[in-house]
Amino acid sequence: MLVKRFHTPGEREAAHYAHLHAHGAPIPDLYLAETDATGREILFLEFLEAIVDLDPMAGFLSNAVNFGKFLTAAARLNAIRPSQAYASILRPRNLGGTWEEARGSLTALVQLAAAGSLGDAVRRTVSEMAPGSLVALSHRLEARLAEMPVGLVHNDHDSANTGLRRATGELLIFDLEFVGIGPRFTDVAGALGETDAEQPRCLPRSALAAQYLAAYALAGGDAPSVDTLLGETRDLLMAGTLRMLGWSIGRALDGVVDWTEDRDDGRREARAGLLADLQRLVDYAG
Length: 286
Ligand SMILES: Nc1ncnc2c1ncn2[C@@H]1O[C@H](COP(=O)(O)OP(=O)(O)OP(=O)(O)O)[C@@H](O)[C@H]1O
Ligand SMILES: [Mg+2]
What we know:
Blueprint: E1 2-5, H1 14-22, E2 30-35, E3 41-45, E4 49-50, H2 56-61, H3 64-78, H4 84-87, H5 99-114, H6 120-128, H7 133-147, E5 150-153, E6 162-164, E7 171-173, E8 180-183, H8 189-192, H9 205-218, H10 226-243, H11 245-254, H12 263-285
Helix pairs in contact: 3-9, 5-6, 5-7, 6-12, 7-10, 7-12, 9-10, 11-12
């Protein structure tokens, strides 16, 4: 089994396991939940086979079998209509910063870029941006997200938070701490939000979206059209990029990333990532 203990006291995942299990969600079995003397949760979970090792997303996105399972598992969780008891403990979760913070980051970005603190490429890109276009985009996206239908979402649906049931090969989702109510297709924004040109995958994104929606409908979800799904995931991806901007700028300044100890390497990669994010946002803002 897998034993997980939290760093800090408080209720975290055990309640989600109980409710989601009752709803038939694709999650591992929870054998036992305890708290230690300081109130930290300890979970004893079914051990799953890892699907990802060194380069999770690259390998994963090109594997039609695992990618299909990954989307289907999300669909089954997203289609759940929480019982009253479960709904009473679910909270909206705003991952990343607020919209105000995102707009503050845009102001900081313009100043830091002009001063050359983020490198030449970012300085050039930012100096060519129409002033205010990303601020206007942030207001449009804020309004669109506020209108999106909501549903049950995992909020960290990443291949690193999934594994295969040893007996059946079924893909299951764990790391349930942030499960909550949010824009209904939040969990597949990362997987489906980028266009086929931006992110080549094993299949065109419209085919993958159709696969997700079929599983969503089968699990009792009220499935919209493929175009609606793709539009929402693209807006959610852009919104996420904007709301992570403060973090991205921070890493482009300090180079502290978890894939290398070398600050210069970290800074170079973080700046390249920031530049790609900005170009995408500028294109989207039109
Ligand atoms: N049931 C499980 N079976 C096998 N491996 C697991 C299981 N649960 C967790 N793991 C492994 O432990 C890692 C961390 O688990 P989890 O994601 O639940 O914790 P976390 O505290 O949120 O960590 P992180 O911040 O890395 O996401 C997973 O990425 C996975 O490699
Ligand atoms: Mg995790």
